[in-house]
Structures are given as C-alpha cells and as structure tokens.
Amino acid sequence: MHKLFGIIGKVPEVKMIFLGDYIDRGPQSIETIIYLLCLKVKYRDRIFLLRGNHETPAVNRIYGFYNECALKYGVGLWWDFQSFFNRMPMAGLISKRVLCMHGGLSPHLTSLEQIRQIKRPCEPLDRGLLIDLVWSDPTNKGDGWFYSPRGLSYSFGKGALLAACKLLKIDLVIRAHQVVQDGYELMVGEKLITIFSAPNYAGQFNNAGAVVCIDDDLQVTFQQLRVPPGPTCVRSCPEVACAPGQALTLPQIKQVASTSQAKTVVSSASEMKEGEKDQKEENKKEEEREGKKENGSKDTEKKDEEKKNEDEKGKRNEEKSTEK
C-alpha cells in the first residue's frame, strides 16, 4: 500500500477512492483496514472507502479475518468491524460521470437515486441491488443479463452495460472484484474498467497491481506496480486457486464453510447465534470475575470488622483489669 501511495501521490495532495476488499487478502488485514480508517478520519474529504463483498460476515468469516481478529484481539473486534462494514457506502460517483463500485451493475438499477436512498446500516443478503453492487461481473459472452456462474447475482454483457450508461447518464464504470493480469482491463470501448491493486496476488499469479488516475478533465491513465515473485505463504483456500479474472462461486463458498478448519457456516443467522453465544460466555466469565472480586472484598471487610471487635474487646478487658 505504501508503494502504491508512492506511485500515485499522497493525501491530501490527491483524492483517493478505494473499491473494497480490504481484508482477507493477507495476514495483516486488521492493520490494513485500520490504516485506511485513520486516513479517512484525518482526511475525511479526500479518502473514500467503498464496500466490497469481503466486507460482509458471510465471506470474511471464512477467509481469515474472523480468525485473525479472534487470535489477536478477541471475537468482539470482529463484531465491531461488521457493524462498521454495514455502514460503508456501496458506490461512488466522480464528477457525475464516473460510477465506481466493487462488483458491478444491477438489472434493478434504473436511477442513481436508488443508490443514494440505500439506508445504512445494511447487510447484503442473497439477491437484489445491494448484492449486485458487490458481486456482479461483466462478461464478453453475450449482450444482456445472465445468471452468474458464482451462484449469486448476475453477469452483464456489452448491451446491458451500454444501456445502463445511457440510462444513468454516465460515461464510465470502474469496478474491482476480479484478478486481471495487468492490474487493469478495459472493456466495451473503454466504458468499463476492472482494476485490481494487489500485485502477485496470493503468491500464485505474476500479475501487476494497478490504480486508475483521473484528472480534472476526466482523462484516464493507469499506474502499475509489480513485485518480484518469491516464496509466499499461501492460504489453503479455493479462491486462491481460481484463474485470473475468476473468483469463488457461492457453492464453493458453502463447501469451504463446511470443510474449513474453522468449521464455520455461511448463514449470517448462524453467525449471529454463535457470536451471541460467545458474547454471553464472555459476559458470564466477567460476572464470575466481578463476583469473586466482590466476595473477596466482603471477606476482607468481614475480617477487618472481626479484628476491630476483638481489639475493642481486649481493650475493655484491659481497662477493667486496671480498675481492679
């Protein structure tokens, strides 16, 4: 990330919009998202963070973020992050002409006002506009809308993209969500750009990372970042084994959920129950600790009182002996 900042410039000199998936991409997900949040707090009008599909509990519970939080700081931090993710914006608009999101377009999207009217906090479920904005993909296998091979959301072709640009009165769509070999890929006469900023992704692809640079005249250029491939600790995860431009499907996600070491499940409801159970256990332990402290304090007070009474009794006996 620091290398990317060195290439494209530093805030507050430039404005930056990030397209999601800040976590589950390595062993320092917590540090990455916290670093970006610090930048957002300091430069709130220069840094913009959009939500990706990994900023949802059903996904980041599986791919490492849950375990990282639990091991480093406890499960409570993971729940705090979910609360934050539910408040993240789903899309961004640059100069009223460039629409940015993590996933892609939606057949339900007929007006940009629909995005503005999304009430937050919100959690994408399994269908609808919210899911499409973080999960859909472009395809060159047709012109219209197709069910996504991922198992949820849609794939959209050239015709669907051009129709959406005309309907929404935009010139360009910029999205992420897929590994591309050069770090960026243009489609449909430069109407759509896929951007991927992590070079040598997962230690398996010798891909470049890239960022999109847009000037005041909306002219687009790209800055690439390459790192020499080397030994990398690769997570045992089917998503890593996907070819560039592809990603894990929903059935694969469910399979990972049932076979992963964490033995987690995709269902958000199940996750909520597990989280509530963990929280109750922590609360119970805390109450027991407080109870022990309170009982210990009472025992100490009782002993002090008994000692005081014994001292007073001894003093009275001593006074009586003196009088005699």
CA radius of gyration: 28 Å
- What spatial order of strands do you see in the largest sheet? 3-4-8-10-9
Helix content range of the residues, please?
A: 40-55%
Looking at the overall shape, the CATH architecture of the largest domain is 4-Layer Sandwich
Q: How far apart are the termini?
A: 90 Å
Shape: elongated
Number of strands: 12
Largest sheet: 5 strands, mixed
User: Which superfamily, in CATH terms, is the homologous superfamily of the largest domain?
Assistant: Metallo-dependent phosphatases
CATH C-level of the largest domain: Alpha Beta
Integer count of domains: 2
CATH fold name of the largest domain = Purple Acid Phosphatase, chain A, domain 2
InterPro entries: Calcineurin-like_PHP (IPR004843), Metallo-depent_PP-like (IPR029052), PP1_catalytic_subunit (IPR050341), Ser/Thr-sp_prot-phosphatase (IPR006186)
Catalytic activity: O-phospho-L-threonyl-[protein] + H2O = L-threonyl-[protein] + phosphate
GO molecular function: protein serine/threonine phosphatase activity
Organism: Wuchereria bancrofti
